[in-house]
Every structure is written in structure tokens, then in C-alpha cells.
Amino acid sequence: MPVEIDIDHVAKLARVELTDDEKARMRDQLAVILEHAAKVGEVAADDVVPTASPIPQVNVFREDGPEPSLSHDAAIANAPAAADERFLVPKIAETGS
Amino acid sequence: MTELCDLTGDELSTKLRAGEITAVALAESALARREAVDDRVGAFLTPTPEVALERAAELDTYLATGAPQTGVAGIPLALKDVLTTKGIRTTCGSKILETYVPPYDATAWTRLSGAGSVLIGKTNCDEFAMGSSNENSAYGPVHNPWDLDTVPGGSSGGSAAAVAAGMAVWALGTDTGGSVRQPASLTGVVGLKPTYGRISRYGLIAFASSLDTVGTFTRSVRDAATLLGVMAGKDRRDATSLDADVPDFTRGLDDGAAGLRVGVLAEAFGEGVEPDVATSVRAGVDRLASLGAEVGEATLPHAEYALSAYYLIAPSEASSNLARYDGVRYGLRVDGDDSIEMMFRTRGAGFGPEVKRRIMLGTYALSAGYYEAYYGQAQKVRTLILQDYAAAFERFDVLVSPTSPSTAFPIGAKADDPMAMYLNDIFTIPANLGGVPAISVPCGLDGAGLPIGLQLTAKALDESTMFRAAAALESDLDLELRPPLLAAA
Questions:
Q1: CATH code assigned to B4-267+278-299+387-487
Q2: Of B439, B444, B452, B447, nearest in space to B153 by CA
Q3: Strands B213-218 and B190-193
């Protein structure tokens, strides 16, 4: 059964701008892929426990001691925009009146 | 003509140790080969000739003192461009990281570098390691040295092509669903995916964290064992790296196949497998039997669901991992009126079609109302596959299948059909889901003269047994593998 996907909603969740062409193509392609992927439901019975990692490890600890870290300059060297040793971004909130 | 750059790491290390060659001459040999052929192959995104020659000269000075030498010292290495290199651009084959210069080294590279490895350059790959043909690179495809009109496989296609054509003696790739083994198969080299956690993922720019492994491309099984030995072991910077004993993986390589219990995966020779591939892999199994291996029929009953599970789990993890490319701290930024619009535009412009497809797929599979039906169910399939492996390895030491159902296919042949492309990984994906080690070894050529790979899989942390079987086969077949591209040169 083909899967109907609300492409606009998913693109919004994923924070990806898509052109109309991309949306149309993606709607068709994802439907085919998901139809194949839905096969997992055929064998995944209720009594099967899920596996998140093939070689699970719990409570991996290390010494919590101070050690050298990146300098400010190194940390922001790749920033698209920076000022005063900080990352510079467009406004994130409306300015109050 | 065979040149230094065409030899194995083991042969070259012996020559370096004996003073027959210098590291500089060896680096020059590999650099000259790149100059001669890479305009046709496209394996490298960022060659590093100055870095290589400077390092090689330092090593020659060091080696002249007669100081002890590792098996990797002085040998030219290429790194897939998803492994970070301090001060050297690392793009992941993506426009979104076109100018990214990492402030740190990946642990795998740190360890090799510390042992004297010579970095020759960063190699092309599918964008964020998502692909099976290297056609998803934002910087253009890689051409297979065996037939320039065909793909080298992917996603580590540049590393595979570099080793196949002598532009590097060996190279690192990454394997999330087959991205080392499949290109190794298609280019006639040895491709290793170790046990999950054997090699630290620190500095491996994340695609799917529960599946990602660093792997190797080499011209011999021994070289794979040597590289793994240098890189393996616990790393405090990767909590999933394993605190397990690291044996000398080169020991026992010559012990032969006698007594090894070899399980042939019956389901891996069915529909969709090219006849030449099936014939060649079966002939490889017959060789193992003639060497004294006990061959039987094995099965992974849930392997048929592995592809479905993989294409839910990997995109889900990717959609989360790739959320970091938001135009704020590094990489591309496309301005917008506010930060959210900037983020939408940056990601829309910076990611290619396959990466967008997987981000969308993963976001959907994790979204409210669908999580249980897709991601949750896929994780249960993963449990079933782990149980399949446990049962199989009670009866067998290694499992055999083709690495890929086909040999190299023409560039463009599957580019518009994602499902057809995903099927390339049908035999490699189960090992990633199960976390077990696997290796692709060349076993012959098809009717068109293109390489075929045989995959061996072993239980978790038992790379040694896998190497032993692989080396026995390699030695018995004794293939002369030289791409036509080099014969013409």
C-alpha cells in the first residue's frame, strides 16, 4: 500500500527548504522506500525486544579532570559570521515595543 | 610497469627497513601516479603533496637512525573526506562543509599518524557517506579505474579507486551499510569493516552512529590486519569504543583454512545476483574446501528484512546527526530574515538530493505517530538479526556470501532509482546491524573483466579468524589484479 506523506510537514520538522520539484519527487520516492521499509512490521512481534546498539555498553565512565580545550579562536574559526569571540546569527526573536 | 606505489604496505615496509628505498621516493611515486591518472579518476578532493613530502623526509631522517619502525611508517595513506584532519579541509563530499577546516584529528588518523603514516590526501565520497556509487558527491563522481565509464561503488569510492590505481598504498574509508566492502569489491581491493567499536569513531563525522565504523582499503589481507592493529582499541573520546584486547592481527595469517568451519549463506546466491558473481564466489568457496575447510550451508533467516530495517535506522540516526548543520558554527550559511529562515535556506542549499531524501525519511520515521511502526519495529528486526548471527556462529567460524550482487555498473545507471541503488548493499548491511566484522576479498573477474568480491563475516571481535580465512583464500587464488587504466600507462 503506498504511503501518503505530508511532505510540507516533514520538511518543516527537518528544517529543510525544498522546491516544488523536490517535494513532488520526494513524495513519490519516499512512498516507494517506505513501502519496502514497512516489511519490518511483518516479523517484529510484540515479544521481541528492540536493539539500539549491536554491542551495548552501559555506564561508560572516565576521569572527570580538567584538560586543555579549544581556544576561542579555534572554536569560532569556521563560523560563517563571528564578532567579539562569539557566533553571530540573525535575530532569533522579535524586538519588543 | 609496476612502481613502488603498486606494492603492498608489507612489501614496502620491508624495503624501507632494509634501506632499499626512502619514504620520500615512495611518496613521490604515489604523487606521480596521482598526477598521471587522477584527472580521469577523480579520487581526490584535497591532495596533500606538501604535507606528504615533508612528513616523508622527517621519517627518512628518523629511519636512518635505525630506530624501531612500525608497519605503517612511511607508507602513503589516503583518508576518506569524512575523517577529520586538523588544519586540512574536510568536506564530507558536501557543499555544506566546502570550506570546513577541522580543529582536531580523528582518532583513527591520530593513531596512524603517531605510528609514522604519511597522509597523501583526502578522498572523494558520497555526500555524508550516503550512497553506493559515489555519484552523490557534490564534487563530481569517481570513475572506476577498471572501466572509467563505471562507478567505483560507494560511499568510500575515492579511497577504493585511489588504492586500486596506486595513488595511495592504502586508505581509510567508513562503512555504515557496506561503504568500504562494496567499493572494495567493485575495484578489486581488500575492504575491511571491523567489529563495531573496534576503532574509535571520534572524528568520523557522524552519519548513523550505531552503525558507523572506520574501515580499510588495502591490496592484501595482511595490510588490513596491520592497519587495524594500529587503530584498534579503547578511546576515551568515544564511549562506544570497545575496551577489548587488541591481538596482533597479523599472527596466524598463514595458518591456512584447514579445519575452519565455513558457512555459505544460501540466500545470498538467489535472484538479483549476477551469474558471474555467484559462480566466482562459489569457486572461492570450493578453494576453501580444497584447502581443508569444512564447508556447510548457513542461513540468516531475517537477512531479508535487514535492508528494510537499515533504511529506517540509518536515516533516523542521520536526521538527528545532521541537525548540527544549521549555519551557525561552521559550514555554509545562506542568510535569512531570522535564524529559522537562515536554517531552512542553508540546509536547502547545502545538502544534495540523497542527503535530503534520507533526512526526510528519518524525520518521518521518528515523527509522532510513526515512530513505533517504523523505527521501533526496525530495532526489533535488529534483535532478530543478532540472534541469527549468534545461531550461525555456533555452527560456523566464518560466513561467506558475495560482497555485492553485481560488479561495477555504468555511471548514471541507477542514479534516478533510489531503491535499485539501495539493493547494492543487500549483503553488506546485515553485518552493520549485527556489529560483526566482515571483509571483502577479490575472488575473480566477470566476463567484462571487472572485479568480483567475496565477503567473509565472523563473530564480534573475531577478526583474527576472518583474516586467517581471507588470507588463505587470497594466497590460494593468487590473483594478478591490475586495472586496465595502468596497463595503458
A1: 3.90.1300.10
A2: B452
A3: antiparallel
Contact B344 A26 (CB under 8 A): no
Q: What's the rounded Cα separation, in Å, for the pair A62 and A65?
A: 9
Domain spans of chain A?
Answer: 1-45
Contacts of A20 (CB under 8 A, 6+ apart): none
Chain A environment of B460 (Cβ under 8 Å):
54-55
Residue A3's pLDDT band (cuts 50, 70, 90): confident
- Here the cell at position B487 is 596497463
Which residues in chain A have Cβ-Cβ distances shorter than 8 Å to B414? none
Angle at CA A11, nearest 5°, toward A8 and A12?
Answer: 85
DSSP state of A95: P
pLDDT tens digits for B325-359?
A: 999 999 999 999 999 999 999 999 999 999 999 99
3-state DSSP percent of chain A in helix, strand and coil, to 5: 35, 5, 60
d(CA B211, CA B213): 7
Q: What is the CATH number that goes with domain A1-45?
A: 1.10.20.60
- The 3-state DSSP class for residue B171 equals strand
Q: What is the DSSP string of B211-222?
A: T-EEEEEESSHH
Q: Residue B385 pLDDT > 80, yes or no?
A: yes
Q: Is the dihedral of CA B240, B201, B173, B420 positive or negative?
A: positive
Give percent of chain B with pLDDT exceeding 70: 100
Question: A with B: how many residue pairs have Cβ under 8 Å apart?
Answer: 180
Kindly report the length of chain B.
Answer: 489
Element (H, E) at B25: helix B23-41
Entry field: residues in chain A: 97
CA distance B364 to B367: 5
